[in-house]
Amino acid sequence: MRPIDYIDRGALYAKDRPFVAGEDGAYTFAEMQSLSGSIAEAMYAQGFKVGDSAAVFSPNNALAVVCVMSVLRAGGAWVPVNVRNAPSTNAAFMGYVDTHWIFFHSSVLDAVETIVADIPSLKGVVCIDSANTPYPSLETFRAKGAGTALPDWSDPFGAPDVVFSRWPTGGTTGPSKGVEISNRSISTMIELGLKHYVGDRTDDIVHLAVAPITHAAGVIITIFAAVGGGTIVLPGFDAPTVLKTIETARVTHIFLPPTAFYGLLDEAARNTYDTSSLRQIIIAAAPVAPEKLREGVKRFGPVIAQCFGQAESPMMVSWMRPEILAAAAQGEHPERVASCGQITSATQ
Q1: How far is the C-alpha of 106 from the C-alpha of 185, rounded, in Å?
Q2: Given the DSSP bridges, would you call strands 206-209 and 77-81 parallel, antiparallel or unpaired?
Q3: Is residue 197 pLDDT above 80, yes or no?
Q4: Would the pLDDT of 315 be above 70?
Q5: Under DSSP, is residue 183 helix (H, G, I), strand (E, B) or coil?
Q6: With contact defined as beta carbons under 8 Å apart, do 186 and 3 qualify?
C-alpha cells in the first residue's frame, strides 16, 4: 500500500474520530480526507506531477500535518523543512531537491520571502493559515481545484518506487544531503511500527507529538493513523505542558529525544501527574544515559522503549521492547540498558 492508503484504511475505523488536534484546531479523519483531497486536486489543477518535491514549512501545527497528507495523497515527495534552521540553510536544501511547492505557516513569512527568489523550480507558494500575505491563502488555492479530478496514480503494489520524501540528512560532514525515501521503504517502516509500537493494542490510541513534525514525530503519525489512532501536536517541548496533556488527554504514545526525556523526568520528580495511560515512551535520535532509563522505568513504569534509525533507513532498524528494558533496569541482563535493542525485520 501507499502511505496514504494506510491512513485511509485507518479512517475506515475512525471517520469521526480526531485525526490531528492542536492549538490551531482539530480535524477528524473524514475532515482530513476531504481537505487533503481538495488541496491535492488544486495542485493538479496548477501543474502538479507525481514525484514533485513539495515542502511543508511550519512549526508543529495541525493544519501543517493535513498539508503533509495532501502531498502524500497527490503523490508528491514531502520535503520536511525545520523552522529552526537559518533561512539560507532551508533555501539551499529546498533548491537542492528542486522544490516545486511550498505550503507555509504565516509565522515563517519573513523566511519564505527570502527563500522564494532562490528556488527557480517553484510552481506554487501557499500560506496555510492566513489570507494576509503576498501569497495565496489555502482557501484561495483550494478553490482553483474545483472540477479537477484526482488521478489514481497507484498500482497493484502500492507504487513502491514513487518517492515518499526527499529527507535531509544530519549534515554532519557538510550541508544536508537529500535522501529519497521510497514508498516501499516507508511502508516497511509503517509495518514495523504497527508490529512494535502498536501491537495488539489498537484501541483508543492517542499519540502526542512534541518533537518537530519534520523529524520522526511527524512520520510516526502515519503509523498510529493506520489503525485509527489520533495525534495531538504541541508547538514544542515544555515538560509541565507535556505531562499535563498526558494526564488530561489520556495519551498512550509519545516520541522523545533524550534531552526532552530528561526534562520529563525532572518535572515528574517535582510534581505529581497521572501518566497511567502511557503504553510507550519511545526514545530515539541519540544515546540515552542508562541511569536515566532506570529512573524512567521507576517513575513511569514498564513503558520505556528505544529504537534506532536514520534518514537512509527510517527508524526501526533496531528496537528495545519496553518489557525487555524494564527487566534490564531491574537487574536482569543489566547490560541491555546500554543497548538500543535488537535488529528488526519485516518478518521478525
Answers
A1: 32
A2: unpaired
A3: yes
A4: yes
A5: helix
A6: yes
Beta-sheet pairing, 342-343 with 313-320:
antiparallel
Cβ neighbours of residue 315 closer than 8 Å, sequence gap 6 or more: 189, 192, 193, 216, 219, 220, 284, 307, 308, 309
| The model's pTM | 0.94
What's the helix, strand, coil split of the chain in %, to 5?
Answer: 40, 20, 35
- Angstrom distance (rounded) from CA 311 to CA 331: 34
- How do residues 271-285 score in pLDDT, each as one tens digit? 999 999 999 999 988
Burial of 139 (0-12, 13-18, 19+ CB in 10 A): exposed
Instruction: Report the side by side order of strands in the sheet with 163-168.
Output: 124-127, 99-104, 53-57, 77-81, 163-168, 178-182
Phi-psi region of 147 (alpha: psi -120 to 50; beta: other; left: phi over 0): left
Task: Pick the range with the lowest mean pLDDT from 66-70, 96-100, 117-121, 259-263.
Answer: 117-121
What does the block give as the cell for 73?
495523497
Neighbours of 20 (CB within 10 A): 28
Q: Cα torsion for 129, 130, 134, 138, to the nearest 10°?
A: 50
C-alpha cell at 107: 509565522
Q: How many CB atoms lie within 10 A of CB 198?
A: 19
Return the axis-axis angle of helices 3-14 and 62-74, rounded to nearest 10°.
120
- Which DSSP letter does residue 222 get? H
